[in-house]
Amino acid sequence: MKFWYQQSWLQWLLLPLAWLFQFITFLRRKAYQTGLFASWKAPCPVVVVGNLSVGGNGKTPLVVCLVEQLQARGIRVGVISRGYGGESNDYPFLVCASADPRKTGDEPVLIAKRTAVPVAISPNRRESIELLYKAYHPQIIISDDGLQHYKLQRDVELVVVDGERRFGNGHLLPAGPLRELPQQRLATVDAVICNGGTAQADEIAMQLTAKMAVNLSTGEQRALTEFSQVNAVAGIGYPPRFFATLQQQGLTILEQQAFADHYAFQAADLAKIDHKDIPLFMTEKDAVKCAAFAQENWWYVPVTAEIAHNELTSLIDKIIAKVGIATYKES
């Protein structure tokens, strides 16, 4: 919501509800910390990649990066996800690269396609882990989101922060975008990764880079520099980031349209912005939902999470050391 990132009378009106949310959140977390509420320990180490604010912060590209880095060390990795946007009533289940995103949600399919690791989804993360562990026996499981899901014990917590929007107006829901207060929660996590903007002294800087476009119909790959004028759509947590990425690559966006995060695209949704003689660009996350009715002029732009080599190596070393995996391949 726009008023979360600017001064507005509405945030002050909603502050009493934010205070109530803070009180409930505090009690809930304390209940798990003290054992009043039971939490569950997975049979293998769990790394949670989450955030403190609502909206797209770049968690999924970081999950893909971590999976690839751990795989390079010879470690068997699995991923669990809530499966937001999926319409299935049958959980848990394993997601493959060819899964229907209407059933699974878009991000699990994206992760499965990019990494080829086993992905399990369920609103009940314990069920996902039990299914994943029984089928593949991973050495580490990465949870895409779930920082506030204290019912699941975790070995490593990583928080992704939007470097441009940061924490908005600094208020908790519904007066602001925050699920937890950063000054308290960030002191307890293992690492804070800043996506874009300027990283603070205690944060790891990450940039999402885009270099090519992939045709949804043919799979053809072209460098972004081969395009000049495009139309663009985005159904992600923060669509302006995608549009800005294209412009930073020198592309001129003639028309653009933003949709809600995890939007369930239909062919008719893109009819007004789809002009046959102009390439239509979208995110990789949106492409998994549009592939079934894609046109020849539709392209998606995969992004890669880039972290300085020394910082990324240090982060992976820290994860491996903390979860107690003694043997792995040197990178």
From TrEMBL:
> Which SUPFAM superfamilies has this protein been placed in?
P-loop containing nucleoside triphosphate hydrolases
Residues noted as binding ATP in the record, renumbered to the chain: S53, V54, G55, G56, N57, G58, K59, T60
* UniProt catalytic activity: a lipid A disaccharide + ATP = a lipid IVA + ADP + H(+)
Pathway where it operates = Glycolipid biosynthesis; lipid IV(A) biosynthesis; lipid IV(A) from (3R)-3-hydroxytetradecanoyl-[acyl-carrier-protein] and UDP-N-acetyl-alpha-D-glucosamine: step 6/6
Record-listed E.C. numbers: 2.7.1.130
Question: Its domain of life?
Answer: Bacteria
- Has the keyword ATP-binding been applied to this entry? yes
Which InterPro entries does the record match to this protein? LpxK, P-loop_NTPase
Keywords noted in UniProt: ATP-binding, Kinase, Lipid A biosynthesis, Lipid biosynthesis, Lipid metabolism, Nucleotide-binding, Transferase
Class of enzymatic activity (EC top level): transferase
In its UniProt record, a GO molecular function of this protein is: lipid-A 4'-kinase activity
**Stated family:** Belongs to the LpxK family.
Record NCBIfam families: lpxK
> What is this protein's function?
Transfers the gamma-phosphate of ATP to the 4'-position of a tetraacyldisaccharide 1-phosphate intermediate (termed DS-1-P) to form tetraacyldisaccharide 1,4'-bis-phosphate (lipid IVA).
Q: What is this protein called?
A: Tetraacyldisaccharide 4'-kinase
Per UniProt, what is the name of the gene that codes for the protein in this document?
lpxK
